[in-house]
Structures are given as structure tokens and as C-alpha cells.
Amino acid sequence: MADKVMIHVEQLRKDYGSGRYAVDGISFDVRAGEVLGFLGPNGAGKTTTMKILTSFLAPTSGRAEVAGHDVYSDSISVRSRIGYLPEDTPLYRDMTVLEYLEFVCDVRDVPKESRRGRLKRAVEQCGIGDRLGALIGELSKGFRQRVGLAQAIVHEPEVLILDEPTSGLDPNQIAEIRGVIKAIGQEKTVIFSTHILGEVQATCSRVIIISDGKLVADGTPADLARKSSGAESILLEIGGARGNDTDPLSLLRHIDGIEEVKALNTSGWSLSDRPRATQFRVIPKAGVDPRGDIARVIATAPGMDLLEMTPEKASLEDVFRKLTTTQGA
Amino acid sequence: MRNTMAIAKREFQSYINSPIPYILVTAYIATAGYMFFRQLFLVRQADMRHFFENMPLLFCLIVPFVTMRLVAEERREGTLELLLTMPVTDWELVIGKFLAALGLMAVLLLLTVAFPITVSFLGPLDKGTTVASYFGALLMSGAFVAIGIMASAFTRSQIVAALVAFFIGFGLFLLGALIGVLPPALAPVAAGLSIGSHFMNIARGVIDTRDVLYYLSIIVVCLLVAQTTLDSRRWR
User: Fold this and answer.
1) What is the topology classification, in CATH, of domain A5-226?
2) What is the pTM assigned to this prediction?
3) pLDDT given for residue A288 in this prediction
4) Dihedral, A44, B228, A73, A9 alpha carbons, nearest 10
């Protein structure tokens, strides 16, 4: 059960008629219970992919299945199994929150006997209990977003598809919505798009990055960070290097476990002052931790002090920028 | 079916909450009432003929305002996308909207029952003809509503939707006015296509299947075009 494939996407392509593929041959699977972050710069094809998954649009070629049903040929089965929150949360402004949720229950054919319970659950989960009588058009953006979420979960769908659920919210609201998504993700399969990286690290069990309609990365947030070529590096600051006879650069180069050393501030003062760098970025050989050696070498060198030694982890942000900018060039 | 009723109910509720139907109903009853009472006081004639004679043109003017927002507004607001990702077929959506607008027209017609009641106090009222006329009026409203929904499905602008619906409806109405000036060979064609002349046939008290079929085909064709327009987003 835990590894049942809930979303299956195969060589998906979508051409809006301009000859340029908005989505260009994407394939991926999402398993039950996964919270998938769908990442990419604006215009990368996230929204288009989601519109195809919700069977609002048809793919130009390729296939997509949700909960085992084809999004094109069996769209009603797909639609009754998903909850969807489109970008910009389009809701009927002239209805009250409760009227709207009841309308959704009607359209989604939520049986009368379980309706009260499900409504109550969705309302509690999204924290809109005290706004049920308010007109949707008069709600703040944050509350409208919550009503949108409640609408997407009230029929207890197997798969939840959320298009930028936190865009335009303030940090507190973002944290709240994230909490709701995380809670829902405990029992449901969730796929949500975003271009905020912190969000993915905070909520997702898996990340897919797309750029220019193509899939460029797929893995857990930690996986992706590790995979980036900017493997872990160490930042050093050494005191007393200026005016010293020995150049710390050559000392560092002699350490065994070090692949490469870069001086960060070579611009010296004058010749007599023996210009020396004081900050370095050290890239260790794979699988080696040279920090102990570095500390020992610098400490034994006369007149030099090790002021700072910080391991730098490649962040998801580095991966994202690397993967999504080289593509366009 | 449940979806259809849910959509119809929501749409009707939305009419009740908006000022447009109140303005339209008032405008219609004021205009029709003016014509009715002018006939009554100036010509001293208490009958329903004039009231029904003006109906095709007046409906041609007001129904586009009833139907203009039905699909266009949802398209512009993006709510159409959300609705169409729920288990609702395009047909159910179109029929639901049709029923809501037709329901509003039925309410409007119901409010005009005051006129035949007035007539019945003043003189003999031909009950059969009046009932037939109301039946015809409902059918004709259905045709205008279907035209309006089709126009509303074409665009995201309510104004464009209203104008398109008006021109199609007015074109079909004008065909009836042209009957007198057209060559004899074309006159029956114009009469056959005119949205008013079929109504006047029914209003005479004779319910002919041809007249009923005319309105039913307009309804079916226009709703089909509306449905196809909605579906076109999924064409490969």
C-alpha cells in the first residue's frame, strides 16, 4: 500500500500551438503518501503539468494517470479522486464560506450521511471555523487560501494537487498553510508547486525540478543538495598570514585530503607587506574530512592562527540555480 | 444529475444576490405594463394580444443581460477551471446554467400573470390562448437563454457575451419583420427561422409541433455549441 503509484506521468508533452513545448517530455511517478514538491522558475511548465494532471487540459502527447485512471480518457474518475487548488485561488466571491463548501460537497457528490463529519474535519484542519458565515469576497488572502484548501480536501481525495498554495501570503500565513499541507500529507498523496525553496525543504519528502518544460532533477531534498557539484567545502580564515614568510596557501596544498584550495582575497597591499590571502575555500577529496589536519598544520605554523573553519553545505538553492539557469543558455 | 442541480441552484442563488435580475424584471414589467395599460386606457381594449406581441423584441433585449455572466465571468475569474476539475461533465455544467437562467425567466413570466388577471376582471379572458401563450413564452425564453449561454461560452468578457447574444437574437427576430418585404419564395424560409413568428403561432392558441420543435432545436443546437466550446480546451 505504501508504495502504490498514485501519479504516473510518461513522456508528457504539451504544445499550446506556438510550436514551443510548455511541457517537454516529462516522466515521473509519485507514490502513495509522498509529498512532492514541484519546483521550477516561473514559466517552466509547472502549472501546465498540473492542469493536465487534473484533466483540465489534454496533453499533446504522452500519458498521465492519477490513481490508476487516465487523465484524458477517464477524466471523471480522475476528477472525483483529486482535490485541486489552482493558482490564485479562484472562488465564488458572492457565496459565504459554508455555502461554498456545501456547494462543493453537492458537486462532488459527498454522501449526505458523511457530509457533516467531513465538512467539520476540513474546516478544523484549515482553521476557518469562525469565518463560515463570511462572504468569500470579503476574506483576506490568507483566509481565502484556506478556504481553497478546505475545498480541495473536503471530499477526502486520494491525491491533492496544489498550485503555488503559499504565493502572496505573509510569513505567518505561509507557515500555517505549510502546517496544513504537512498534516494532510500524512495520509494523502500531495503534489504542490512552488518557487520558494525553503518551502520544499520544510514540507516535502521528494522534489522534482523542471526547467523549460524538461525535468532536470528528481530526489529527496537532501539527495539533490548532495548531488550538486558544489560538494561540501570548507571556509577558512587564517590570522597572521600577512607579513609571514610562509604562504598558508602552500601549507594547505600539502595536506593530503585536500583536492583544491582557492584563495578568496588575494588582493594584497604592497610588495614589502608580502601580500597573502587570509581567507580560503578548501574542497576536500571525496569522503575525506581534512578538518583535523588543517587545524594541526595551521596551528604549528609560526605566527598563524586559525580564526574560522566553517563547513559549507551546498544548499538546494545552489542546485536550483545551477539546474535552471544553464538550461536556457 | 445532482451536479446539474447543484450548479443550477448555485447560479440561481447568485441571481438572487445580484441586482441585475431586479433591474431587468422591473424594467420589463414597467415597459410591458406601459404598453398594456396604454392599450387599456387609450383604445379601451382589454386583451393580452399586445402584451404577447411585444414579448419577442423585449426578451431579445433583456435575456442577454440575464445570460451574459453565466460562463464568461467564471472563465475570467478562473472558477471555471476549478469547477471543470470537479467530477462535472461539460454538459452538466451547461444544462445547470441553462436551468438557472430559465428559472429566472419563469419567475419573470410568473410576475406578469397580474396582467391576464386584470383583463379577466374587465372582460372575457381567453384562458386557453393565454395559457398557450405562456407556454410559448417559456419555450421562447429557453431559446434566448440558450443563445445567451452559447455567446457567454465564447468569451471572457460579459459585454461581448451580451452583444453577441443580442445580435444573434435580434437577427432571428428581424427575419420575422422581413417577411412582408421578401420575395414570396423566401418569405416562408424567413418565417420558418424567425424567433417571433413561431411564438405568435403558439400565442394564437394552437400548439403546433413545428413551433415547439423550432425552439427545442435552437435550445439543443446552442447548448451543444456551448458544450463543444467548453470542451475545446481538451482538443489535442
Assistant:
1) Rossmann fold (3.40.50)
2) 0.84
3) 76
4) 0
